[in-house]
Amino acid sequence: MSITYVRKTNDDKIIGVADRLAGRLQQALIDAVGVASGSISLQELTKAIEAGNTNAILDIITGSLSRALAGQGLAAGKASLQDAAQMIFSSAAKTAVGEMPASISTALSMNLMNQNAVSFLDKYTFDTIRGITNDTRGALTQVLTRAFSEGGSPEEIAREMRQMIGLTAAQDTAIANYRRALESGTSSGLKDALARSLRDGRYDRSLLRAIQTGQGMSADKIDKLTERYRARYLQYRANAIARTESIRVANAGQMEAWRQAREQGLLDGAEREWQAAGDDRDCEVCDGLDGEVVGFDEPFSTGVMHPPQHTHCRCGVKLKIPKKERAAA
User: Fold this and answer.
1) Counting C-beta atoms within 10 Å of the first and last residue's C-beta, which end of the chain has fewer, N or C?
2) Nearest-CA neighbor of 14 among 99, 85, 125?
3) Which tens digits make up the pLDDT trace of 184-196?
């Protein structure tokens, strides 16, 4: 069996690229939600709610979010979702070239504006926008159902729906339960609110005082705490998406660099090997994949071409190059 060169990933530079630039992706998501929320006409949304036109209500909000995620309405200097993804993709591809043997990297002519790279970024952006807007649509449908059953003016419903942009139905439920806990005024309800990990700790004294005095909290304070809880949930969701998606885009950038090298005859016979992260973010699926070797163009046994396999997955892929190919390069 021939000796192979295996890219070391115990200090994975591709994961390093993803970690370093994940904040760009997170900020792009948060900026888009802000633009979407600010661009929605409360008057138009209120009118649709008054008419009970559910499809029109959802289309107003998700349409605004889709456009913002695509970069429409962003202030000058603000990165769109695709801008952030392109930066991660390009940085990872360049890093992957630097990780190849010098005999290969110096011979490689790389083009990050080729059709394959452009198609990936276009499809990635489209799929991500669709996923986020579909999640938001589910959350808004839940908000609307609850609002219609519990009552409230169309203006109040419109404001609440505008605040839920970018969140999921499960997160909407958590926020609604947090508000109910605050509104209960009971010791148990307020203690529940105080125990929530995403609460804004700056208001803990107010909660403790309300528990000790048994006087509850004012409506204004409840609104303020709930808004802070919602904002922190948005940060949490954007961070979760960014950490996972930055890994996806970085691995795709790495694969593109390898693909171009192979097209130029520099990686004939190369294979790829899955390397589990080896930390507390591993799952049983990733542990099972660790060390699995596949052909250059073959998916791994779970059907994926490269990580992430799950949310917060931090696995990597090694490139295995036959020694004879290194010498030939």
Assistant:
1) N
2) 99
3) 999 999 999 999 9
CA distance 261 to 257: 6
- Cα 193 to Cα 199: distance, rounded to the nearest angstrom: 8
pTM: 0.87
